[in-house]
Specification:
single chain; about 325 residues; alpha/beta; TIM Barrel; eight-stranded parallel β-sheet; four-stranded antiparallel β-sheet; 10 helices; about 40% helix
C-alpha cells in the first residue's frame, strides 16, 4: 500500500515534484486523443513517467465523470447501438494496448449525471470546498438528454458493456476499476430522471457480482462511499472489509467528509467525521496492495493552491501508512 495521485501533471516539473514528495505511483494521462493511444504511444508515455522514478499504475478510459451531454463518448451510457459498439471497440483496443505497453490498470465511470453538487461552502481557514445538500438541490430539475432512465435500463447498459469488455481485460490481465456514482441519490426516484444504481453499497455489490473476474473491480472512492452512508464514521470500515476481502478494490480515493447521505461537505483529510487512520488499518487488514490517493481537496488561498492542498494530503497519507507499518 502506497501513496499515489491522479492529479494531472501540467509539465515535467510536476512529475519532479511528485517524486520529491515521495509520490512514486500515479494515474497518468497519455497525450493525444484516445484513438491515438497505440501500444507504442502508451509505451513512450510510460517510459517518460518512469524517467522521473515514478510508476505508471493507471490511465483513464474515455468514460469520465462528466454529465452525459458533455461526455466525449456518450453512447455506451445512452444505450445507442451501433454507436456504443464502436465506442466499446475503442475501449477494448485501449485495454489491449495497455497490456502491450506494461500499464496494469485502467479507471472509468459509467454515469449520466456526472458529479452532482450544490453551492460550494467554506471550510477550515476560509478554504472553499464542495458540498451536496439534497434539500437545497434544484427541485424537479430538467431531465438529462438520456430522458427517464430507470434501474433496469441502467443495469442493461452496464451489463452490455461489461460482457464485452471484461473478457478482454481478463485475457490481457489489465484491471478495470469503476468509480461509484457521486453522490448517491434516493432510490428509485433518483435525480433528473436517472436512477443512480452505482450510488449505494448494495448497487456496488451487485456491480461486482455481474461478472466474475479478478480484473473487474472498483476505483473505491472512499469519499463517495461515505456519502452513501447514514453513519459514515461507523459504517465505512465494514464496507472496506466487504470489497477488500473479495480483492475488488483496485485503487482508493482517500477523502474525508463531514455529514451523511444526502447532506455532506468535503473536508481536509484530517478533519472530517471518519477516522482515516483506522481506515488505513482496515485496508492493511484486508491486504490491500495498491494506491491511496486524494481525488480532490479543498481550494486553498495563495499561489499554486491546488498543488499545495494535494501536497499536504500526500504527506498526511504517507504518515498514516508509516504509522501502521509493522
Amino acid at each position: 500500500m502506497h501513496v499515489g495521485t491522479q492529479l494531472k501533471a501540467r509539465n515535467d516539473d510536476d512529475y519532479r515534484v511528485f517524486a520529491q514528495l515521495g509520490v512514486n505511483h500515479i494515474c497518468g494521462y497519455p497525450p493525444g486523443c484516445p484513438e491515438s493511444w497505440t501500444a507504442e504511444t502508451l509505451t513512450r508515455y510510460r517510459e517518460h513517467v518512469e524517467s522521473f522514478g515514478i510508476s505508471l499504475d493507471f490511465i483513464p478510459l474515455p468514460l469520465n465523470s462528466h454529465e452525459i451531454s458533455n461526455a466525449e463518448y456518450p453512447n455506451i451510457m445512452l444505450g445507442k447501438s451501433p454507436e456504443r459498439d464502436r465506442e466499446i471497440e475503442l475501449i477494448q483496443n485501449i485495454i489491449r494496448n495497455c497490456a502491450l505497453a506494461g500499464i496494469p490498470a485502467v479507471k472509468y465511470n459509467m454515469t449520466l449525471l456526472g458529479v452532482v453538487s450544490t453551492d460550494g461552502e467554506k471550510w477550515r481557514g476560509g478554504s472553499e470546498t464542495r458540498a451536496f445538500r439534497y434539500a437545497k438541490a434544484v427541485q424537479d430539475p430538467p431531465l438529462t438528454i438520456a430522458g427517464l432512465t430507470d434501474a433496469d435500463m441502467m443495469w442493461e447498459r452496464i451489463d452490455y458493456f461489461l460482457q464485452r469488455v471484461v473478457p478482454v481485460a481478463g485475457e490481457n490481465e489489465v484491471r478495470m476499476a469503476l468509480h461509484p456514482h457521486d453522490p448517491g441519490m434516493p432510490q428509485p426516484e433518483g435525480f433528473r430522471g436517472v436512477d443512480r444504481v452505482l450510488g449505494s453499497v448494495e448497487g456496488l455489490k451487485q456491480f461486482i457480482d455481474l461478472y466474475p473476474s479478478p480484473y473487474h473491480g472498483l476505483n473505491f472512492c472512499q469519499g463517495t462511499v461515505t456519502e452513501m452512508l447514514d453513519n459514515p464514521a461507523e459504517e465505512i470500515f465494514d464496507v472496506i472489509r466487504y470489497f477488500g476481502e473479495r480483492e475488488k478494490i483496485f485503487n482508493v480515493h482517500f477523502r474525508n467528509i463531514h455529514g451523511r447521505f444526502l447532506d455532506f461537505i468535503e473536508t481536509y483529510v484530517d478533519d472530517g467525521d471518519v477516522d482515516m487512520r483506522e481506515c488505513v488499518n482496515t485496508y492493511k487488514e484486508v491486504g490491500y496492495p495498491y494506491m491511496l490517493m486524494p481525488d480532490h481537496v479543498p481550494s486553498m488561498s495563495g499561489e499554486n493552491s491546488k498543488m499545495v492542498g494535494f501536497a499536504y494530503t500526500y504527506g498526511y497519507i504517507k504518515g498514516l501508512i508509516d504509522s501502521t507499518a509493522d
